[in-house]
Specification:
9-stranded mixed β-sheet; alpha/beta; single chain; elongated; 23% strand; Glucose Oxidase, domain 1; 9 helices; two-stranded antiparallel sheet
């Protein structure tokens, strides 16, 4: 029997997060009144489709127990919550070809053997280097295979909802990213807000040095070699062993999108684990 571990973080409005805006909730009790408030388009449709001259008003007496259906309206970027960055996010081309949008990501990439590399001892704003990755692979006794989904654990998901989650996390270096991608990895996930170091830190370093190499270097690398990032993972510490499990991370299909929300899971075959 398989055990499934949720690797996402919840979508929650946070003033420190520019990618998630306000959440408007329609409760069951307020539903009838809300529908009446927002019903202009609905009433036009009913009048047209049903040819009704008088459209009935909905109120608390219309539905059982005076309650209608709940509904939620969330102002949200495709980079809010746990999400997958497609190559199109990095630039219009990747490796000399039109970059894949989120609807172009092959589903075969999204359900593959997983390996989790643990870097919980990394300090805030510290880059994960190629040497760090090599040492961790040696420690766990694993060799990357083309198509593996690599998960980078820093433990930084535990910082939510503290603003430091967005401003002080570790991040991948372009050298570590290149090493994995050139081994045949298509999807790399991380439990931080950004795959690179925090935007505020990168911009500060650019202002200090004038060197654009500090600005989203792993994202920019995606223009050279095709790969996919999953950002804002959570719960990687719940995966019992570093490999021997499957990751499933299918993105929502957003036409023309450079990213899409995803609820990734680790699937543990308990027979294999035993």
């Amino acid at each position: 029997m398989a055990h499934v571990i949720d690797l996402s973080v919840p979508l929650v409005a946070n003033t420190a997060d520019p990618n998630v805006g306000e959440l408007e909730q329609w409760t069951h009790e307020s539903g009838p009144a809300r529908v009446n408030q927002a019903s202009a388009a609905l009433r036009e449709q009913l009048a047209r489709d049903l040819r009704l001259d008088a459209i009935p008003q909905l109120d608390a007496t219309t539905f059982p127990d005076g309650m209608f259906l709940s509904n939620e309206f969330l102002t949200l970027s495709v980079h809010g919550g746990t999400h997958m960055d497609a190559p199109f996010h990095y630039g219009p081309t990747s490796n000399g070809h039109p970059a894949k949008q989120i609807t172009d990501i092959p589903l075969e990439w999204c359900m593959r053997p997983g390996v989790v590399l643990r870097f919980r001892n990394h300090r805030p704003l510290q880059s994960i280097t190629a040497e760090d990755v090599e040492a961790e692979l040696e420690r766990i006794g694993y060799r990357i295979t083309a198509g593996d989904i690599v998960l980078i654990e820093t433990g930084w998901d535990a910082a939510l909802p503290d603003p430091q989650y967005f401003t002080a996390h570790p991040g991948m270096s372009v050298e570590a990213t290149r090493m994995l991608v050139e081994t045949g990895v298509k999807i790399i996930g991380i439990d931080t807000n950004n795959f690179d170091l925090p935007p505020s830190h990168m911009i500060r370093e650019y202002a200090r040095t004038g060197d654009a190499k500090h600005l989203w270097p792993c994202h920019m690398y995606g223009r050279q070699r095709e790969y996919v990032q999953v950002e804002r993972l959570g719960g990687l510490d719940q995966i019992p062993s570093a490999f021997g499990f499957t990751v499933a991370c299918f993105p929502v299909r957003i036409q023309g999108g450079g990213a899409g929300w995803v609820r990734p899971v680790a699937i543990i075959d308990e027979g294999d684990q035993a």
